[in-house]
C-alpha cells in the first residue's frame, strides 16, 4: 500500500453515512483521528518503512505518537530501503528504526553489503529477535560477523540465508546458541555443470555443513537447501539427526542421487518434500531475480503464526 492508497482508503473508511434515518448532517461527519489507535497502527504498517518516516508520522501529533511506538517496529525489511530514494541513507535509517523498536525487534530482513558493523548494531539491540533473514546483495558472499551476531539471538526460531556462504562453524554456533530454531533456509541457484565430475572429496565442505545440521539442529521442522552441493552422505546425516522435519526442500541439489538409494525410504516420511529434479517455476523463491520478498512478507504479517510455517 502506497501513501496515496492509504489516503484514498482512509477517505472511504471515514466517509459519512448516507443513512436516511440520520437527520442531522453534523452527526454524520467522521474524523479518521477517531479511529482506535490499534486500527490506525495496523493501517499504517501496510504503507512500509519509508512512507511512515517520510509522510505518515508528519500528518499530526496522533499519528506521530503511533509511529514512534516500539510495537510499530517489531519487523523491519531493509530490502524496502534498497528500492527507495533513501538508498544512500540505508545504514542510518536502519539504525534509526532499530532504535525505535527499543529492544522489541521480532524479525529483520538484513541486506548484507559489507556492512558488518550494522549487523552487529542490530545484534547488540535485539536480544528477543525470532527471525533473521540475510541476503547478500552482490553474488554469493561470506557475511563477516554473522557467527558473533547469532550468539546474541537465544530466541531465534527462523534463519533465512540467501546467497550466503557459511561454514560448519556457523551451523554449530546456531546449535549452541539458538536452541529454539525451527526453520532454516540456505538457498542459492545451482549449476548443473560439472556434476558428473563431482566426487566425495570435492563435496567435502558441503557435506560437512550438512553433517553439522544433522548433528546440531535436532529440533528443525522446516529445512530448505536449494542449490546445495551436498551428496547422499550429507543428506543421510540430516535425515538421521533431524527427526522432526515436516518440510524438506532439495530443489536443484544435483549432487544427490536417489536412484536405488536407501535414503529414499527415509524421505517418504516427510510431509512436504521437494526433490532435486522438481521444477522451480511455481516456487516463490526465484534466485535469478534476486527476489526474496515472499518469505519476509509472511513475517511482516500480523496474522502470521510464528510457531507454524508458511512459505507463501
TrEMBL record:
<protein>
    <submittedName>
        <fullName>RNI-like superfamily protein</fullName>
    </submittedName>
</protein>
<dbReference type="InterPro" id="IPR032675">
    <property type="entry name" value="LRR_dom_sf"/>
</dbReference>
<dbReference type="InterPro" id="IPR036047">
    <property type="entry name" value="F-box-like_dom_sf"/>
</dbReference>
<feature type="domain" description="F-box">
    <location>
        <begin position="29"/>
        <end position="76"/>
    </location>
</feature>
<dbReference type="Pfam" id="PF12937">
    <property type="entry name" value="F-box-like"/>
</dbReference>
<feature type="signal peptide">
    <location>
        <begin position="1"/>
        <end position="19"/>
    </location>
</feature>
<dbReference type="InterPro" id="IPR001810">
    <property type="entry name" value="F-box_dom"/>
</dbReference>
<keyword id="KW-0732">Signal</keyword>
